[in-house]
Automatic annotation (TrEMBL):
Signal sequence coordinates: 1-20
Keywords: Signal
Pfam families noted in UniProt: OMP_b-brl_2 (PF13568)
Listed name of the protein: tRNA modification GTPase
Outer membrane protein beta-barrel domain residues: 230-381
């Protein structure tokens, strides 16, 4: 029941805090009458998608979704710009039976495009709501056309891939329309935002032409953190004889100070909300006090004692909720194998001693970060540390309150 309550609290925290974690910023929309209207804008979903943008008119508390039918352009000055455009998308399947099936099947429709690069001679756009990123370009005042690329899987029979084919026509398009001084430099260019933006930028520099590069076009790196920490934990152990009708033995809950170190990599997508972490934490648990039924330290059980020392190795994920640049809430979950340190033991009398056996369990946590300082509460599911002892089953339960400090090893987040 305790675990269910903690999990419920974590899930409620996500549900209640996630919608509010991204703040509205000053921006604008352009309506169908070509009127530019100042407003507050936020993206409540995927950073690359245009489906989740919302806005509030100045002085209003009403939040409205930015709809394709009513808005022809929106953005935040210098940060990003999205325009409504009529585009063509290749709807042909990417799993085919022969090379004859690589003929594109174009379908037209209106969509919001991210303006990545706006140049005097050419502009670059992206569309991310098709499943895979698609890129488009225009020349001066010409129509917006796709940069043609597709990866095909040739199947000899269902789910058996014989060959991978690529349609890299976008390289020919760039060579034909955006070659500087007749030089061809697209042989190795990839169909990615980073490489295409760089190509458009180099082309305009070569031609001494002006351009605007929006912040949303910049490719971000992840963040690698080194996080030493110290925590106060509480542990308790129950022992049960699995065959005889003996009462459960409860070793007293004890507090101890533990320490550890971890590494965390925060992924750059979706506003740095997801992270992978690995830790190594040293902890101890020692007590000679037990409760059997309602009796404290009964004489019949004299000599029972626990001396437990281990190094746990959590590996898991963090999900951050960014309140602002300095304040973040997070929830975490991890798989936790551990190593029992030599010398750890459990005494069942003055003359009967056994060692513990290592296993694994899971951990769930919730916490708060202020800049590099972190505080978190972690709950560990019960684990059986006496599997090696005949007729003895156990539940070792642990909770911990931990403080940490993050040393940033590399990042470009400050450039955002």
């Amino acid at each position: 029941m305790a675990m269910k309550g903690i999990l419920t609290a974590i899930l409620l925290s996500i549900c209640l805090l996630s919608p509010a974690q991204e703040k509205f910023k000053e921006g604008y929309i352009v309506n169908n009458r070509h009127e530019k209207i100042p407003c507050l804008i936020r993206n409540s979903g995927d950073e690359e998608s245009t489906q989740y943008f919302e806005y509030r008119l100045m002085g209003s508390k009403t939040t409205q979704r930015i709809e394709l039918s009513t808005v022809e352009e929106f953005g935040i000055e210098g940060e990003f710009k999205c325009i409504r455009a009529l585009i063509s998308i290749d709807m042909s399947p990417d799993r085919i039976k022969s090379i004859k099936d690589t003929v594109p099947q174009w379908e037209k429709g209106h969509a919001f495009l991210h303006v990545l690069f706006e140049g005097e001679l050419a502009s670059l756009y992206s569309y991310n709501d098709h499943g895979t990123p698609l890129f488009f370009f225009s020349l001066e005042d010409s129509d917006i056309v796709p940069l043609v690329y597709k990866r095909y899987q040739v199947e000899t029979s269902p789910n058996i891939i014989q060959q991978i084919l690529y349609n890299n026509m976008f390289r020919d398009q760039l060579d034909f329309h955006l070659a500087c001084n007749g030089k061809k430099s697209t042989d190795r260019i990839g169909y990615s935002k980073k490489q295409l933006v760089r190509y458009f930028e180099e082309f305009h520099k070569c031609r001494n032409s002006s351009y605007t590069l929006y912040r949303s076009a910049q490719t971000r790196k992840g963040i690698l953190l080194l996080k030493p920490g110290i925590g106060v934990g509480s542990m308790a152990l129950d022992i049960q004889n699995t065959i005889d009708a003996a009462p459960k033995i409860r070793f007293d809950k004890e507090s101890s100070i533990g320490f550890g170190i971890g590494a965390e990599y925060i992924f750059p997508f979706n506003r740095y909300k997801w992270a992978f972490f690995a830790e190594a934490n040293y902890l101890t648990y020692k007590t000679g006090n037990i409760t059997v039924g309602n009796e404290k330290n009964p004489p019949m059980y004299s000599g029972y004692a626990v001396d437990y020392r281990s190094v746990e190795l959590p590996v898991g994920i963090n999900y951050y909720m960014n309140l602002d640049r300095n304040n973040r809430l997070f929830v975490k979950a991890a798989f936790v194998p551990y190593i029992i340190r030599s010398g750890s033991h459990i005494d069942f009398s003055d003359s009967y001693r056994e060692e513990f056996s290592a296993s694994s369990h899971t951990m769930f946590g919730i916490g708060y970060n202020y800049r590099s300082l972190g505080m978190e509460f972690d709950y560990y599911t019960p684990t059986n540390v006496t599997q090696n002892i005949y007729k003895r089953s156990s539940n070792l339960v642990r909770i911990a309150l931990k403080a940490s400090y993050a040393f940033q090893l590399f990042s470009d987040r400050g450039k955002r």
